[in-house]
Amino acid sequence: MYGAQLIEALRKAPSLAARNAAGMAHPNSGSGQLSFFGVGGERMRATGCDTVIDAKDLAVVGITEILSHLPKIWGLYRNLIREAERRKPDLAVVIDSPAFNWRVAREMKKRGIPTVYYVAPQFWAWRQRRVRLLRDYIEKALVIFPFEEKFYRDRGVDATFVGHPLAELPAPVVERGDYAAKFGLNPAKQWITLMPGSRVKEVRMNFPTVLDSAAMLGNEYEYLLPVAPTLDREFLMGMIRDHSAQGITLVPESLPALSHSRAGIIASGTSTVEAAMMQTPFVMVYRVSTLTYLMGKPRVKVPRFAMVNLIAEKEVVPELVQQDFTVKNVVARMSEILPDGPRRDKMLKELGEVRSRLRVAGAGAPPADRAAGIILKFMKDRAGENW
Q1: Mean pLDDT over residues 3-22, rounded?
Q2: Which of 21, 197, 217, 360 could form a disulfide with 163, with the two C-beta atoms 3.0–4.6 Å apart?
Q3: Is-contact 191 176, C-beta < 8 A?
């Protein structure tokens, strides 16, 4: 999503016609326009990006899980570097995925290709010593959480807070009745959005308990399951059938589902920010393998897991992680925020405050546009008279 937004912003930037630059792109397209290649999915391809690697092939989570996929990931990585050598881009823009992208940035540095990091790694959460990787290989970091700018600048990284891409999103315009008709939902019932993760391993770890929680909450609700672009519908339907789950409807997009839902059960990650932006109360859940958890927990440097809680610097939403992620706990926490009352009102107020914190005060432009402007200025400053 972030990559597609950035490409669209770069294409419409006023200074675009002056220079054939690249965000993972090369200057030899002959069109006088930006050209892009790199890692991406359907949304990136829709913007005209030549996806050398499909993002689905890198969607692996967990320390132990990554180890088993290393040969495949290494092969994809080498393919990307070979393409960079062949196409000779003016600039590399790496987005999120630090375990993969800092290595890409290192190889770009060796080849004299400057690199900008958009959606910088969350090294403030764990492995803080790895900030040196950004100092060594990155020319500019564009961060999307307000506290990140100071964290990185204090450690010698040229970082700028551009705002979170989700913070400027308006609520979807589709009316509840139309949405219900489109997906065969009962508009008289309250809806709950289920988001168990965007990677297969995450879903396998989280979805069974989420489904059991939905069953315990009962059929007075209907349940919406947005299908992440990295997941297959049949895989999700198979899990639903295995649990004999009822009243669950698969939908293509998360934001309309969240906007029309009374509450959500949301796995840790970007989806929690989406829920906050749609002002949907939710319970955050997450589980990884026992070995991954035991290996990773000592390295965590932050007191909370949910991104909205980190942004607010307090607990806004309940966090049910690992052994605390049980059906009993999920149902208990959901029962506090589904009915009208002080608990729900307090969460709604604090989710609104989180949204405000994710905006750049007085900026006026969407985060992707601000990021695009900084990237193009960076390239112009480097090119000098040749721009």
Answers
A1: 69
A2: 360
A3: no
DSSP 22: -
Please state whether the predicted TM-score (pTM) of the whole model is above 0.90: no
Q: For residues 266 and 258, is the Cβ–Cβ distance under 8 A?
A: no
10 in Cβ contact with 376 (< 8 Å): yes
Report the 10 Å Cβ neighbour count for 227: 17
Element (H, E) at 37: strand 37-40
What number of other Cβ atoms are within 10 A of residue 4's Cβ?
18
Architecture of domain 176-357: 3-Layer(aba) Sandwich (3.40)
The alpha-carbon radius of gyration of the chain (Å, integer) is: 21
CATH 3.40.50.2000 maps onto the chain at 176-357
pLDDT at 21: 38
Amino acid 302: pLDDT: 57
Q: Which CATH class is domain 2-168+360-386?
A: alpha beta
CB 279 within 8 A of CB 356: no
Contact (Cβ atoms closer than 8 angstroms) between residue 51 and residue 74: no
